[in-house]
Write a structure and sequence with these properties.
two-stranded antiparallel ribbon; 71% helix; 147 residues
Length: 147
């Protein structure tokens, strides 16, 4: 509508849209007399086409990504298990100490806490690894169906 006013030779000085009590100021020079409806309809057709197109997914790429994440999980489990064993060895050495006392008790508590933390981390990683394995199975099935 404003473009028609400009096309008829009038000059816009101030342009505002008021909607639901909110005011939005627009730059008047945007309205140069050129109709807006054709480009707006073209844009509308483009986004409707995008919304109706099926999403293309790189299943092979997702399979590769999941396999790499599973490998990362396996490495993390091994590292946490090695840490657990190291803390267990330190705990055994601490308990065999010839100098029992407050320091020994604090170290033992610290090592037990570290062992528990590593064991919890192994469980968390294994759950993640299991989820990745399930996703990998579904992706592999999807890939064989689409081929």
């Amino acid at each position: 509508m404003l473009s028609i006013i400009v096309a008829n030779g009038d000059v816009l000085i101030d342009v505002r849209i008021v909607e639901h009590g909110r005011e939005t100021k627009l730059p008047p020079d945007v309205f140069d007399g050129t109709p807006f409806m054709a480009p707006i309809r073209e844009l509308e057709h483009e986004w409707q086409a995008l919304l109706t197109e099926p999403e293309r997914v790189d299943v092979a790429g997702l399979i590769d990504l999941n396999q790499r994440w599973i490998a990362v999980c396996e490495t993390a489990v091994r590292k946490n298990e090695a840490l657990t064993e190291r803390f267990k060895a330190l705990l055994r050495r601490n308990e065999a100490s010839l100098y029992p006392g407050a320091r020994q008790a604090k170290l033992a508590a610290y090592y037990r806490l570290k062992i528990a933390t590593c064991q919890k981390e192994v469980i968390r990683i294994q759950i993640c690894q299991w989820q990745l394995g399930n996703r990998l199975s579904r992706l592999t099935q999807l890939l064989t169906v689409t081929l």
